[in-house]
Specification:
This protein is mainly β. It has one helix and 22 strands. It is 1% helix and 37% strand. Strands 14-15-16-17-18-19 form a six-stranded mixed sheet, with no helix packed on it. A five-stranded antiparallel sheet has the order 9-10-11-12-13, with no helix packed on it.
């Protein structure tokens, strides 16, 4: 099979420079000679013949002195507040979806954005009809990358949303408030804690942790042990099925059983102005009288 050397050189497309390396293709792949044509769309687009697709390839390897792989397509900031983007538009040329790199905010008084975002239009019947809004973003120039969603729901359909980590480490899902420069301050966390796993289902207990205004952990208001299923309120080491670290319990509403044989389940407790009632067996109440002192 005869091979034809095809050299694709620099193409300027909508102000974007496409740099494409040398590639060998067969006559069968190449077919009859073709030429780029003017698109029927406005804006000076280039129409790709035959299959209406643009195929780019490169054989360039790691460029060590530049610290990155050789670019196939490079979108470059050409002005202080430029936003390089790849945009999908409908048949009328109206933007519908975009992948955009935000470095500077449109408003010079705002902090730098510094993230790549995936944006889609809002509902035509909503508050911001047909405007592009960020739905998913990944920050850069930071040691820890946080994936964020905006005006969106995050759904896992018939699957697992997993937070994994080494044993004896906390694994958290946090609820936080956003402040200046996209900094977040935790308010609550659902945590599989760092308690040691020593066998017999011990360790990695589930906690609900509260934080103060400065984002420092205060305590665990609720702990559920993985070993025996004990639940602790105000304690992270419950030794009974319900262990309350406090000096009061409250049952808000009073209730008076109609008789000592009224239907009940063992362990139920009720009270009224005169008595405390305890269901000691199925459908069997006992009571003790209350008195003032």
């Amino acid at each position: 099979m005869k091979l034809t050397k095809v050299i694709l050189t620099t193409v300027i497309l909508g102000g974007v420079c496409l740099l494409v390396g040398t590639r060998f293709i067969s006559n069968q792949q190449l077919g009859a000679p073709v030429a780029l044509k003017q698109s029927e769309q406005d804006g000076g687009e280039i129409r790709i013949p035959h299959n209406e697709r643009l195929l780019l390839s490169t054989d360039k390897k790691w460029v060590e002195k530049e610290g990155h792989l050789s670019d196939l397509i490079r979108l470059q900031w050409t002005a202080d507040r430029a936003k390089p983007a790849i945009v999908w538009a409908d048949e009328k040329g109206k933007d519908k979806t975009a992948i955009i790199s935000h470095d500077k905010a449109n408003n010079p008084e705002q902090h730098d954005h510094k993230h790549i975002s995936f944006e889609t239009t809002m509902s035509p019947t909503g508050q911001y009809p047909n405007q592009l809004f960020t739905r998913f973003e990944i920050p850069y120039d930071t040691d820890v990358s946080e994936i964020r969603t905006h005006s969106s729901n995050f759904n896992v359909m018939s699957g697992i949303l997993r937070v994994a980590g080494e044993t004896e480490t906390n694994r958290d899902i946090q609820f936080s408030v956003t402040g200046k420069d996209n900094e977040t301050t935790p308010r609550w966390a659902v945590r599989a804690d760092s308690s040691k796993e020593t066998g017999n289902n011990t360790g990695a207990d589930l906690q609900f942790v509260r934080y103060d205004d400065g984002g420092e952990a205060v305590d665990s208001v609720l702990t559920m042990q993985r070993s025996g299923g004990n639940v602790g309120i105000g304690t992270d080491d419950p030794d009974t099925k319900l262990d309350v670290n406090g000096d009061k319990l409250r049952v808000r509403n009073k209730y008076t059983p109609a008789s000592s044989s009224e239907a009940c389940s063992q362990g139920q407790i009720a009270w009224d102005d005169q008595h405390v009632y305890v269901c000691v067996a199925k459908d069997r109440w006992k009571r003790t009288e209350l008195s003032s002192w």
